[in-house]
Design a protein that fits this description.
- By secondary structure, this protein is an alpha+beta fold.
- Helices cover 34% and strands 20% of the residues.
- A hairpin with a 7-residue loop joins β16 and β17.
- α4 runs antiparallel to α10 (343-381).
- It is elongated.
- It starts with a strand and ends with a helix.
Length: 384
C-alpha cells in the first residue's frame, strides 16, 4: 500500500434506516452514471415501509455488477432525502473531518474504480461487489483541506460545463424560434408562404449525399488519428459532433477519401436508431448507418439541419418498410421532400442563425476541453 493510502472501511459505515412511518415518498434508483435517478418501478400496492431511507450526504450502491455494463451503480445524495429498494446498500462517511464525502465520490467516479469493482466481484448466478470488498478498497487520503480543494476545482469545471450546456440549449432554442417564425408561421411574410418558394427534395438542395462506410477494422493503422469517425452513439445530445469514440488515421481516411465530409455537413442516422441529426464541426467521416447532406452553396446548412430535426417521426415511418429494423436507404433519403425558400429569404435566415450556431460550436469545443480536464483530475487523484 502506498504511504498516503488507507483502506476505505476505516472511514465508512453501513446505514439501515427503513421508511416505517412512510414519511418519505421520493423513490429513486441508482444509475451506472453514478447518479440518483427516478425509479421506474411500478409501486402501485407496494408497501414502501420496508424501503431504505437515504439521507442527504449519504451513499447508496447496488452490489450487482454482472449485468451493469462493467460498471457499478453508486451515487452520493446531494438533494433531499429519498427512499430506495432494499436491494441497495446505504452507507455514510463516519468522520467528515477525515474524509470528505464528495472527494470519496470523485474516487468512485473513476473508470479505474469500475474496473476494480468488476474484477473483485464474485458469485455463481450473479456476480456482486459486496460490502466487505468495498471496505477493502485502498485510496489516497490526503489532508482534508487538500481533499476540499480537489472537490472545489472539480465542481468549478462541472459548473462551467453545465453553464455552457444551458447557453447552448438557449442558443438552439433561439434558432428554432427564428426557423418557426420564418417557415412555419410565416410571420415576416404576412402569415402566408410566398409563392416563389418551392417544394423540392433533398437531392435538389444537396451538392452531395454521402452514405458512410467503415474502413477495415482488422487494420489498426486505419484508426487512432485526428479525423472524427462519427457513429450513432456520437450523435446524441449535441448540435455539433465535436468528439467521437474513434478517430481515423490519414491511412484510414485515404481508404475512402470520397466519404470525407466538410464542416457543417448534416448527418442523419438512417439505420436502426433512425432520426438522430448532427452537424460536423470539422472534416469527418461516418459509418454506413448515417446518410449525410453536403449542401449546395446557396443552401444554408442550418436551415437543413433544423428541418431534419423536425422529421424524426417521418423518417421512422419511411424506414419501417415491413422490416424489424428501420432502414432509410439512400434512394429513399434523397427523395425526402423539403421546402425551398427563395435565395433572398434563405440568405436572410442564414445571417440570423449563423452566429448562434458558431457560438454553439465554440461552446461544445470548450465543453470537450473541460471534460478532458475532469478526466485528468480524476486520474491524478490516484497519483497523489
Amino acid at each position: 500500500m502506498k504511504s498516503n493510502y488507507d483502506t476505505l472501511g476505516k472511514y465508512i459505515q453501513l446505514v439501515d434506516m427503513r421508511n416505517k412511518d412512510l414519511a418519505i415518498t421520493n423513490l429513486l434508483g441508482v444509475s451506472i452514471e453514478k447518479k440518483f435517478i427516478l425509479s421506474i418501478a411500478n409501486i402501485v400496492g407496494t408497501d414502501l415501509s420496508s424501503y431504505k431511507v437515504v439521507r442527504t450526504g449519504q451513499f447508496a450502491y447496488g452490489p450487482v455488477t454482472s449485468r451493469n455494463g462493467e460498471k457499478i451503480s453508486i451515487a452520493y445524495l446531494e438533494g433531499g432525502d429519498c427512499i430506495i429498494s432494499s436491494s441497495y446498500s446505504v452507507f455514510e462517511v463516519v468522520n467528515k473531518n477525515e474524509l470528505d464525502p464528495e472527494y470519496l465520490m470523485l474516487w468512485f467516479s473513476r473508470p479505474e474504480f469500475d474496473r476494480y469493482a468488476r474484477y473483485k466481484s464474485h458469485g455463481s448466478v450473479r456476480e456482486i461487489f459486496d460490502w466487505n470488498e468495498l471496505c477493502m478498497v485502498e485510496l489516497p487520503i490526503p489532508p482534508i483541506d487538500e481533499q476540499k480543494k480537489i472537490v472545489k476545482v472539480y465542481k468549478a469545471i462541472t459548473d462551467r460545463i453545465a453553464l455552457k450546456k444551458q447557453i447552448n440549449d438557449n442558443l438552439e432554442a433561439t434558432a428554432l424560434t427564428i426557423y418557426k417564425s420564418y417557415f412555419v408561421d410565416f410571420e415576416p411574410f404576412d402569415l402566408a408562404q410566398l409563392e416563389s418558394w418551392q417544394e423540392v427534395t433533398i437531392d435538389d438542395i444537396a451538392k452531395e449525399v454521402v452514405c458512410g462506410k467503415t474502413p477495415p477494422t482488422a487494420d489498426a493503422d486505419n484508426y487512432g488519428g485526428n479525423v472524427p469517425f462519427i457513429t450513432i452513439p456520437d450523435m446524441h445530445g449535441s448540435v455539433y459532433t465535436t468528439s467521437t469514440e474513434r478517430f481515423l488515421s490519414d491511412k484510414g481516411v485515404a481508404t475512402q477519401a470520397n466519404k470525407t465530409l466538410p464542416e457543417n455537413s448534416i448527418c442523419v442516422s438512417c439505420i436502426a436508431s433512425v432520426g438522430l441529426v448532427c452537424l460536423t464541426a470539422e472534416p469527418s467521416q461516418t459509418n454506413q448507418q448515417i446518410n449525410s447532406i453536403v449542401c449546395k452553396k446557396n443552401i444554408s446548412p442550418f436551415y437543413v439541419y433544423i428541418k431534419m430535426t423536425t422529421l424524426t417521426e417521418y423518417l421512422k415511418q419511411l424506414g419501417a418498410g415491413g422490416s424489424t429494423t428501420l432502414n432509410v436507404n439512400k434512394t429513399l433519403f434523397v427523395q425526402i421532400p423539403i421546402l425551398l425558400p427563395d435565395e433572398t429569404v434563405m440568405n436572410e435566415f442564414h445571417g440570423k442563425v449563423e452566429p448562434l450556431f458558431s457560438a454553439i460550436r465554440a461552446n461544445q469545443y470548450e465543453m470537450q476541453h473541460l471534460e478532458s480536464l475532469k478526466s485528468l483530475l480524476l486520474t491524478q487523484i490516484s497519483s497523489r
